[in-house]
Predict the structure.
Amino acid sequence: MSLIDRDQQNAAAADRVPLINVAVEGSTLKIEHRNTSEVTINLYAVDLELLFSKTPFVRDDLATMAMVEPTRSERIELESKDGIKQFRLNEAMSRQTLLVEVSSGPARATTLYYGGNLTAYVSQAFGQIQVTDSSNRQPVETAYVKVYARHHDGSIHFHKDGYTDLRGRFDYVSVSSGDLGSVQRFAILVIDPERGATLQEADPPTR
């Protein structure tokens, strides 16, 4: 078999393999799929503060997180093998923080869904985060913010914590110890008792 024939066979085989991507839009999961007529959706309830304390850069580890049993599992038949499927979370699930896993055969996609009504805007240039209520866009004061930093040597350390001010703002960068030259990236957890939690990541401000 020639190299061209082998490449053509490999390309044809790749075109038959299921492909999945999942994204969150409000309280709806948007599932993009190819070469599959059904998917399985597994939802795992997550204690975001506990998970963050153990794995601050949790997004890097979503694909390897081990869960014993999902909180909810559902098999969905798709209208066509290629397309987009919308899956709306019920009211109870939409209020929780969830690890979302969508699979079909060898294909698997994961993402985090943040229940509640918090929206966080990160201003990397100034090292600030602003927290608002998603329902009315008003600033949220006294939301708890916890920050970890990943350094260029790969180590991860607690950086600072505190509460948002009257404007819903929090400076996630400044610390009394000074030098930020070794920081590669920040992981920022925001928690409000009434509105839920959200997780952001940011590069350090450029100097």
Q: What stands out?
A: The domain at 3-113 is CATH 2.60.40 (Immunoglobulin-like).
